[in-house]
Amino acid sequence: MRQSQNGGKRVLIVGGAGYLGSILSRKLLSNGFKVKVLDVLMYGREPIEEMLAHDAFELVEGDMRNISTLVKAIERVDQVVNLAAIVGDPACTLKPADTIETNFLANRALAEACKYNQINRFVYASTCSVYGMMEGDEKLTEESSLNPVSLYARSKVQAEEGILSLEDENFSPTILRMSTLYGYSPRMRFDLVVNTMTKNAVIDKKIFVHGGGKQWRPLLNVEDAAEAYMRVLQEPLKNVKGQTFNVGSEEQNYQILDIAKAVKESVPNAKLIVEGEEKDLRNYFVSFSKIEKTLEFKAVKQLKDSIFRIKKAIEDNRFSNINDPKYYNVEIG
């Protein structure tokens, strides 16, 4: 059973101004946590601007790869959530050295600093991409073999192993393997599959599916993702210490083509274009029974509702320049 009181616990969110972090920061503040954010603010401070005046919010602007910045960030915190990473295959391919430095080396250094300072609860954001290419048709559980097919996924596997190896009586890491996120956020992204398809459907009246679209992907709304992190922070430590959880919804394991069809239902005048041979080796159908049983976590946000919300935000001109680089973790053509 989850704790009902958060007791003013101070949580450091590394990457707290990002797509997921800006939502998680708000959610924790509204549930009685004190929130400290370490973020390089690569995409500006607008996503967290409204929180800066909150008495329980603190911002440390800087890069986690800088040791002095990292040490300052972990001062006077009880728990750490690490969301910071170079995210996704395209961005990692463009910056391989930065990927290893940020996704593996800096993550390991942060975990070691937390252990040294006896910050016991440490939550690390990994990815279901570590499963890579599914063999057979069985659902992938936390015990399934890892088969990463990209630098991004390999860096996450290395980080998981490094962090879990530090576990002892004073350091209790939890690994969350995230589904592909979608939905509206204060730090909006249009380089995630659902968001990208919706944007292209509304703006260009085209929905592209590359490689046939038969690949499986687990999806999760970003607001549900934030709820999962809060559940881990509220759970008695003995239930999450040293544990790995797939985070998502079994009902939201989708084939890429079916995602495109869901977008077309909301934007019927868009043309669905399926092209090319299978090039993306990633293909994984994931089980989420462990997090449902242990944390009583169940996704509540639905894909179609989220597509409609993004569509309406675009139509209402919520984004002054939808091609602004701040909406993308990788440069667009």
Automatic annotation (TrEMBL):
Superkingdom per UniProt: Bacteria
InterPro entries: Epimerase_deHydtase, Lipid_A_modif_metabolic_enz, NAD(P)-bd_dom_sf
Cross-referenced Gene3D superfamilies: NAD(P)-binding Rossmann-like Domain
Stretches assigned to the NAD-dependent epimerase/dehydratase domain: 11-248
Signal peptide (from-to): none
The protein's name: NAD-dependent epimerase/dehydratase domain-containing protein
Organism per entry: candidate division WOR-1 bacterium RIFOXYC2_FULL_46_14
